[in-house]
Amino acid sequence: MKILIVDDSLTVRKIVIRYLLKHGYDQIDEAVNGEEAIALLTQYEYGCIFLDINMPVMDGFAVLKWLNAVSWRNDIHVVVMSTEVALYSPEKIRDMGINTAIAKPFTGNEFEKIAVSLLNVIASKEDSITLVYDGPILIIDDSMAMRNIIRKQLSNLNCLNVTEAVDGKDGLEKISEWAMLYEEEEKMGIVFLDLIMPNMDGLELIEVLEEKGLLSKLQIVLLSGNIEMALDMLDGISIKAALPKPFEHTAFVNALRPLIEDTKEILTHTSIPDIQLFFDTEQPKAMVFSLMSIRPENIDELDDYLFSQFESIALETSFPKERFREINGEKFGSWISSVYRPVLLIDPKISTYSELEFLYGRIEESTQHETALGSIGNEEIEEYCKTVLIPRHKDYIGLTTEIGRYKLAVKTRIEGKNKLLQQYKSAPSSEIKEAYEKQGHDLLNYRKALENHEKLREELVDSLEIEYKGKVDTILKLQCNRMALLSNQMRAAFDRALWRGMSSSIRFRAYCNTHSRHVALSTQSWLENEANKNFTDERAYFENNFCTSILIVGFKDSESGRLREELKKLFPVYNVQAFSTWTIKNYSLPYEPSLLIFNRESKELNIENYVKEIADYYETVPSALNTLIIYEGSIKSEELLGDNSLYNLKLKNYMKIPKNSNEFALMEIKIKSLIF
Which of 165, 255, 358, 637 could be disulfide-bonded to 140 (CB atoms 3.0-4.6 Å)? Predict the structure, then answer.
């Protein structure tokens, strides 16, 4: 990492360089004023700049202003070394674009503790692992610079629920607040504790905590320049680890990791176990379905019969049908092998396993039924219409009945004529001849009528065949569409149940920690992390999916537009939408959004009702939704501590509306702590 030192004092520059070289940081450039610094900054890429404020030609304020205007500002860490910083509050320092501040005068030892720790954190960021810890962390140190450095290291490790205290007395107040919030839990949180501080030092704080019975509920990491003394204090119960000042990245991770990982639940293996899951077992053979086996009274009954088969598959399948989205069978098959199977193998006892097994069986059944219906060909449809459906048509039945009568009449007349002919041959008479001729005349009429009815029946058959073929084809396609819709909805329900179970799985969270993955792992990130590079369509699909939706509600157009644009920059893969007024029906998502950002000051917005409506729609409880409430004025204590308060004091799901880039950076950390 290349470092720039900007100070008009040769003595200060020598002190800084000596301690940097001592720790292996040898790519160092120097500048004696702001003008020289800017000239170097335009030529080279630096990871960190140590900047004095009061200098001739161009002071440090001008350099800060110039840096805050360049596009690559976030790529460089600014450490201000000046007597000025003692006069500023932490908020003022952030507003000025200062990342870390070291007050002058300082000793070489003081500089070493702060600067080298910081550079170790910056240098380790690119290859930093992600531990993921959702619980609270408290940093107690009188040095604002050291607090900032530890917070930065924790942020790199994705441990974002962090608060600070300036001494032991301030820390005791924060821990007392924890005791109120986490009174039912065995462990409250992790504390990074400096031993040497004014007002109340670390040793005094430990004694007070032990007297109050709070020490056993904490996990403490000691921070000290005297590492031997700190190591002597380790008890393995509450005081778990000790870090020297300056600390190294690896030492920091090694101290923190055991505190946030449940060793009983950790999966230390890298290979997926060979466990048989419900979709690994042999599926039943494809359904054999024949139209010829169905004998309805009419064609409408055929539709009812097929629909009853559809209903039998859908029976007891409960899912939110209005939150429909397409997951076709081909993609679902690839997800089963590439996504769902690995996830379930990590925790085959996931809470939603039985629901997933049931849904998968229904999906297979509906897919087989759809395939069986879709495999019926034109020849079978034609045969079915001719032999089953048309013979049941009332006009066909009427004509067939008449044809039968005429055939009988023709047969009777032929027999009558033959009989009269025999009588005439044996005893000719005019009466027999007249009767014979009348039979012949009737026979001719009946034959004509028979021929006419047979012709009418043929015409009816031709007409009905065309009509029925079209109807049967339409009915089959309708049923196939119904089955496809059902299958899609059940596949979406399967996916929803999987991620619901995964997010609540301690075993899966442990796996994510040991493999440097995020707990809220989505299908898209799984595909990326597992190096399944062939699944570009699936990754693109999930980039615009429910898993990555942030909704901004209740702001004026100008405010919501600014928020939306800033959040799109901070979270580029998230689908960020803004609404002045909104209901869940306006934005149909199959799953609850990743985050809902509400405007507390909106007079038109009833946040409580909105959250309840969303929770009811997504079949969950309000506390399960991720909410961030933006406020302008102050928040009353009853709002923070009320049983039904939306301002969750544990998660700190509220903040003042951001106005500048530094406040948006804080908002980024806040949102990460909520949605990650």
Answer: 165
How far apart CA 498 and CA 271 sit, in angstroms, is 21
Structural domains of the chain, count: 5
- Domain endpoint, select from 215, 237, 260: 260
3 state SS of 243: strand
Do 131 and 243 sit in the same domain of this protein?
A: yes
**Coil, helix or strand at residue 624:** helix
| Residues whose CB falls within 8 Å of the CB of residue 286, separated by 6 or more in sequence, listed in order | 368, 371, 372
Residue 71 in any domain: the answer is yes
| In a shared domain, residues 563 and 602 | yes
Q: How many CB atoms lie within 10 A of CB 223?
A: 25
Task: Answer for the pair 553, 593: CB distance below 8 angstroms, yes or no.
Answer: no
Q: How far apart are the first and last CA of the chain?
A: 30
232 and 129 within one domain: yes
Helix, coil or strand: residue 99:
coil
Cα dihedral 296, 302, 308, 311, rounded to 10, equals 180
Residue 461: what pLDDT?
Answer: 93
Q: Kindly state whether residues 48 and 21 are assigned to the same domain.
A: yes
- Residue 542: both structure tokens together: 């999930």
Contact present, 621 and 615 (Cβ < 8 Å): yes
* Within a domain: 277: no
Query: Which segments of the chain have a pLDDT < 70?
Result: 126-130, 132, 261-274, 283-288, 314-326, 338-339, 503-504, 509-548, 573, 581-591, 642-644, 650, 675-676
Nearest-angstrom CA–CA distance, 550 and 563: 11
Q: Is 649 contained in some domain? A: yes
527 touches 339 (CB < 8 A): yes
Q: Are residues 367 and 503 in the same domain?
A: yes
CB 256 within 8 A of CB 223: no
What is the three-class DSSP state of 203? helix
The answer, yes or no, to whether the previous bond of 391 is cis (omega within 30 of 0) is no
Which residues are CB-neighbours of 75 under 8 A, at least 6 positions away?
Answer: 45, 47
Does residue 274 lie in a domain region? no
- 434: CB partners within 8 A, 6+ apart: none
Q: Which of 109, 180, 190 is nearest to 143 (CA)?
A: 109
Mean of the per-residue pLDDT values of the chain: 82
Please tell me the distance from the alpha carbon of residue 318 to that of residue 316, in angstroms, as a whole number: 6
H/E run at residue 619: none
Length of the chain: 676
Residue 204: CATH number of its domain: 3.40.50.2300
- DSSP letter for 623, please: G
Same-domain check for residues 148 and 234: yes
Residue in this structure with the two tokens 């048309």, named with its chain if needed? 390
* Interatomic CA distance for residues 604 and 580, integer angstroms: 9
Do 84 and 133 reside in the same domain of the chain?
A: no
Q: Are 367 and 361 in contact (CB under 8 A)?
A: no
Residues 202 and 70 in one domain: no
Q: Residues 238, 220: contact at Cβ < 8 Å?
A: yes
Task: For residue 114, give the amino acid letter.
Answer: I
pLDDT of residue 147: 92
Distance between CA atoms of residues 103 and 194, nearest Å:
18
| Residues spanned by the domain of 336 | 291-378+486-529
**What is the pLDDT, as a whole number, of residue 191?**
96
* CA–CA distances in Å: residue 119 to residues 49, 97, 112, 255: 11, 18, 10, 19
